[in-house]
Amino acid sequence: MTRIAGLFDCLKREGRKGLIAYITTGDPSPERTPALVEALLRGGADLIELGVPFSDPIADGPVIQRAGERALKAGTTLHTVLDIAGQIRERSQAPLLLFTYLNPVMRYGLDRLAGDAAGCGIDGCLLIDASVEEAHEYVGAMHRHGLDTVFLAAPTSTPRRQKLVAQYSTGFVYLVSRTGVTGERDSLSDAVAPLVRSMRAITDLPLAVGFGISKPEHVTELGRQVEAVVVGSAFVRLIERNLDNPSLEIQLESFTRELKHGFGVPA
Questions:
Q1: What is the rounded distance in angstroms from the CA atom of residue 122 to the CA atom of residue 97?
Q2: Which of 60, 123, 148, 184 is catalytic?
Q3: Which residues face 97 on adjacent strands?
Q4: Of 168, 119, 175, 174, nearest to 143 (Cα)?
Q5: Tell me: the pLDDT tens digits for 210-262?
Q6: CA of 113: how far to CAs of 46, 83, 212, 259, 266, in Å?
């Protein structure tokens, strides 16, 4: 059992819901990322998505785009992200999901990445722009090295694509709450509930909802429907507003705890 599967098994046994936290690795600097991850975990995050900065992040909104630019200027590469994952793994057994675009993976080498990611303690990978219809080679490489493969299902996904997402996903299925790019929203989309229902009908995997989740009340509402909630831009914006603030980690921990309280139980 992978750490990701083990996490969701534990959450189910304990009657809890999971908080998945995304950050752009290397923002504001590669050296600071492990401490930021530790702050997220202290605040109650259950799984960490380590975003790989990319120069053409077509699925990301302006907040994460700017974070990627800062991380790239700080010298962050896919190699750097793997090194940071290894540092985090030395101090924590929390599940780590590599969140990246296809281009850096292909340049690195698919099988090489799978082996190196597993070796540094990463538990799974989400290729945000990978076509699930052409995922066989990618899935095979990841599974050979014991890594989970997480795919996205969106409100616009056809029934055929939803079935492929269910077939190729392991660990959990990532449901995109709305069409468009990442970013904070004031309210949740009405498209979430129908998407949850359609995926429940074809998979027993845990479901996590992301894109636009930024408030405790969002967490509360989604916690009634799915096993986990993904928060990204809200964390990245907090980091952006406190780049030179020595209390950034404290603020990040506090905000994480506030979101986790949205589930109705102490973090």
A1: 6
A2: 60
A3: 49, 124
A4: 168
A5: 988 888 998 999 999 999 999 999 999 999 999 999 999 999 999 999 999 99
A6: 24, 12, 30, 33, 37
221 noted as active-site residue: no
Convert the pLDDT of each residue in 44-67 to its tens digit.
Answer: 999 999 999 998 877 678 899 999
How many Cβ atoms sit within 10 Å of the Cβ of residue 55? 11
- Beta pairing class for 124-127 and 173-176: unpaired
**How many angstroms separate the CA atoms of 200 and 20, rounded?**
20
The burial of 6, by beta-carbon neighbours within 10 Å (0-12 exposed, 13-18 middle, 19 or more buried), is given as middle
Residue type, 120: C
Tell me whether residue 240 is one of the annotated catalytic residues.
no
CA-nearest of 23, 190, 155, 153 to 97 is 23
Catalytic annotation, pick one of 38, 49, 249, 253: 49
Chain position carrying tokens 């603030």:
245
